[in-house]
Q: What sequence folds into this?
């Protein structure tokens, strides 16, 4: 049996978030960074509109989350990251905020929020808010004021610029720079009121705040303090490495379509980013209770930069969310899809493990609300759905860093079978489709890319049961439930001790109880093997060996260079029902013994062994 078995559905909640415990303790047996509470924590991301509806309007809400907290407690997660629930026109599903200190009516009220906090805390679960302060909504009073006149006291709170010199304001090509927005088209919007342009790195309804202005920074810090005073446990900071821009705003190199330039070198990890984050730390977090969590979402961040951002001595953020490994199946851009090569994945994740080994900390994830479902993308969502979902979980959760689970991932939820262009709702997908059609791209190719890569794949409602709307709502869901919910749903999985859900639960428990998982050193083996992902973790006298077969074929375990003999090692956890004994060497006859007495790996099989000494 797995070493961390507990009876399904009865695992005890963790202790209530406790600020009396010291936030760091020195790990006696390793020379790396001091141990911090989040080394053994697991974060669960909720995308509220798709999680659980409580009032039959077809949109998930705060009371729905409260009703499902026991699911999260049974899973054993420590922290919930809540995607935005603030007042918003919902142009980008809440990442366009019009009031940072109120809850959008569609999600509930501040009272509901307080109750969620209380009920989560009672189950030992912390709540981390999404902090979206690179931009606001264009309906935020700050922007409404700013756009009203060139003399507005808030004019300089955003990036306003005149047309390119010598060009007619509003004319084609007169934008102040050639930058492309993340959601297609120019990153500048011409505004008739004053005849100038404002910058929006995302949609035109998401104008960028000007962090050069100290009043903006103080307003943001005051808002953050207000939430912390209310009891929230930290922030996941949306595209936070975009807040410092090169103020000379140079043009970028032309991008794939040739229509726009890539401005990212001029706004990713810009000149004042470390200064701003250190100031934020001083102004918001210094002197507060221990055990808050700060996570910086940072597209394009390098390992070297991440070391600086997450070095505890520098007081910036606890960890960054980086994107390198989820870009490995992209060609020239996100919609140019290509199959993932396992060798590339190992090289990337291995480099991040090595780069943050002695300073800083990793976030670990396959999924979030911006990514297609991992089992469809990196696994096999057909015949080996269950095995490959568990394999992906095993590999990720055994790395060094804090794992993130995106809602439904613990059920092995899959991508959505989109019928046609009209099935996509996300602004990024809709804008891309429209712009691709304007450019004359082949609609079948564009649809194929959208089916694989659209963020909408992550946004279908959580599948709670096999009823018509999967238990998500009694009304008409804002986004159709995946037709496979009769087979893939929480009710079935919680009742089945061999389900994906219980595999995740065991992995979380392993991280809670095993210091090697939380803090052990990471060592990648066989980096060039095309289908075998293999690594060790070690702390003091103990080591873990993780083996994962990323293929639908049986795989003999090759020699593991430099490794001691793993024959006879105890099986800690695996994704196939264990045979008698279940140690290394067991089942060898049935599965075919490979080098060192380790049984061959069956299709999409993952196993973790332990050795002491
Ligand atoms: C990153 C968020 O994860 C994404 O969903 C959003 O569209 C952009 N930032 C803009 O806020």
A:
């Amino acid at each position: 049996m797995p070493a961390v078995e507990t009876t399904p559905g009865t695992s005890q909640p963790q202790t209530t978030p406790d600020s009396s415990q010291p936030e760091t303790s020195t790990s006696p047996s390793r020379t790396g960074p001091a141990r911090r509470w989040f080394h053994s924590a697991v974060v669960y991301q909720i995308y509220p509109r798709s999680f659980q509806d409580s009032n039959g309007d077809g949109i998930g809400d705060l009371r729905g989350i409260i009703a499902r907290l026991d699911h999260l407690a049974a899973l054993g997660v420590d922290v919930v990251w809540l995607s935005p629930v603030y007042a918003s026109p919902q142009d980008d599903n809440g990442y366009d905020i019009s009031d940072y200190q109120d809850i959008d009516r569609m999600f509930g009220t501040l009272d509901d929020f307080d109750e969620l906090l209380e009920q989560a805390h009672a189950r030992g679960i912390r709540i981390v808010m999404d902090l979206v302060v690179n931009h606001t909504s264009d309906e935020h009073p700050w922007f409404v004021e700013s756009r009203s006149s060139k003399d507005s006291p808030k004019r300089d709170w955003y990036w306003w610029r005149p047309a390119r010199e010598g060009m007619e304001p509003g004319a084609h090509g007169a934008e102040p720079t050639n930058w492309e927005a993340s959601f297609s088209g120019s990153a500048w919007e011409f505004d008739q009121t004053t005849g100038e342009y404002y910058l929006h790195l995302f949609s035109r309804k998401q104008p960028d705040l000007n962090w050069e202005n100290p009043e903006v920074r103080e307003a943001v810090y005051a808002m953050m303090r207000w939430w912390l005073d209310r009891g929230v446990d930290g922030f996941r900071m949306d595209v936070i490495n975009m807040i410092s821009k090169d103020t000379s705003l140079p043009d970028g190199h032309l991008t794939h379509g040739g229509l726009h330039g890539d401005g990212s070198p001029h706004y990713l990890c810009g000149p004042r980013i470390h200064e701003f984050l250190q100031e934020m730390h001083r102004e918001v977090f210094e002197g507060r209770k221990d055990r808050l969590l700060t996570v910086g979402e940072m597209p394009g961040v390098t390992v070297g930069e991440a070391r600086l951002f997450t070095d505890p001595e520098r007081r910036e953020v606890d960890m960054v969310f980086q994107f390198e490994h989820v870009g490995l199946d992209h060609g020239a851009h996100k919609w140019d899809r290509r199959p993932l090569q396992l060798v590339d994945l190992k090289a990337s994740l291995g480099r991040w493990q090595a780069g943050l080994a002695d300073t800083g900390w990793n976030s670990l994830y396959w999924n979030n609300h911006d990514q297609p479902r991992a089992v469809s993308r990196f696994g096999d969502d057909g015949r080996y759905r269950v095995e490959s979902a568990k394999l992906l979980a095993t590999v990720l959760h055994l790395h060094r860093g804090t794992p993130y689970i995106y809602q439904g991932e613990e059920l092995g939820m899959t991508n959505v079978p989109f019928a046609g262009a009209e099935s996509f709702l996300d602004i990024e997908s809709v804008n891309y489709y429209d712009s691709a059609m304007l450019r004359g791209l082949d609609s079948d190719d564009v649809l194929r890319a959208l089916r694989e890569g659209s963020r909408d794949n992550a946004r279908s409602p959580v599948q709670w049961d096999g009823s018509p709307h999967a238990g998500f709502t009694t009304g008409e869901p804002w986004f159709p439930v995946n037709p496979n919910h009769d087979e893939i749903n929480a009710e079935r999985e919680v009742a089945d001790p061999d389900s994906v859900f219980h595999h995740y639960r065991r992995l979380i428990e392993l991280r809670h109880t095993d210091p090697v998982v939380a803090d052990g050193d990471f060592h990648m083996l066989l980096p060039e093997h095309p289908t075998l992902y293999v690594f060790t973790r070690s702390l003091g006298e103990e080591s873990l060996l993780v083996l994962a077969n990323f293929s639908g074929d049986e795989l003999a375990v090759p020699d593991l260079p430099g490794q001691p003999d793993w024959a006879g090692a105890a099986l800690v956890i695996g994704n196939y029902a264990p045979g008698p004994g279940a140690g290394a060497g067991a089942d060898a006859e049935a599965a075919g013994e490979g080098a060192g007495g380790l049984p061959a790996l069956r299709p999409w099989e993952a196993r973790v062994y332990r050795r002491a000494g």
